[in-house]
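Allow me, if you will, to draw on your knowledge of protein folds for a short while. The matter concerns a single protein, recorded as an amino acid sequence and a row of backbone structure tokens. Could you please explain, in whatever detail you think fit, how the structure tokens follow from the sequence? I remain grateful for any guidance, and I place the record below:

…
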Amino acid sequence: MRNVLVTGPPLAPGRDQDSPLAAELARAGYRTARLAPDDDVDDFCHAFGGTPPDLVIADLSSARDPLLPLQHLRRRLSQAWGDDLPPPPCIALLTPAHLERRKEWITQIDDFLLPPYDLAEARARVDLMLFRRRSMEATAMLTFAGMQLDLSTGNAYDEDGTPLPLRPREFDLLRFLVTHRGKLFPRERLLDFVWGIDFGGGDRTVDIHIRRLRAKLPERVASLLETRRGVGYGFRVS
């Protein structure tokens, strides 16, 4: 199930948390949450049980300048999930007046809608954007140091095409470190990104999985898995 975060102006006291659009997406099978950009960072973190949103719909119809709330929303997402994960795609609800200054905000969004905001059209745009994203993920084969990660199946192969006996969480940790190679992450951040912020285990879980990866990866790849005491874990670029 895909997570769609709907953001908009602060909600009045006693007002229903669900917007019509959020309710429509929920009926279509999406997991939705309604927040304002000024809501607490913890609300963003826990909106989907500890996992980040797959897509954001930003209601900017009442904003005089859409750039400022878009930038604030990016900061909130960054505060919740760190600068290391790319922001989710964003669909903005704009007005014709916003188009006159589109050069200021166009790099902040992936698609937009103009009034009247038709619920069926909005849902179709969400379907299309997430379908394209799933298609990209399904066809992605990540190659690193002669090893291949098949993102569609969760399988890893050595340079001879032999499958590596990785468990799902080991694969997830390997994929995260490989796609962020050149950076080091402390245990706490890896737990947030790979296991989710609601994970109840201790940070030694990361140490155990790192040891398992070292034992299962080809020697050439394992030699690039970096451990820096007091800093964290990562993959060297070469």
Observations:
- The domain at 141-235 is CATH 1.10.10.10 (Arc Repressor Mutant, subunit A).
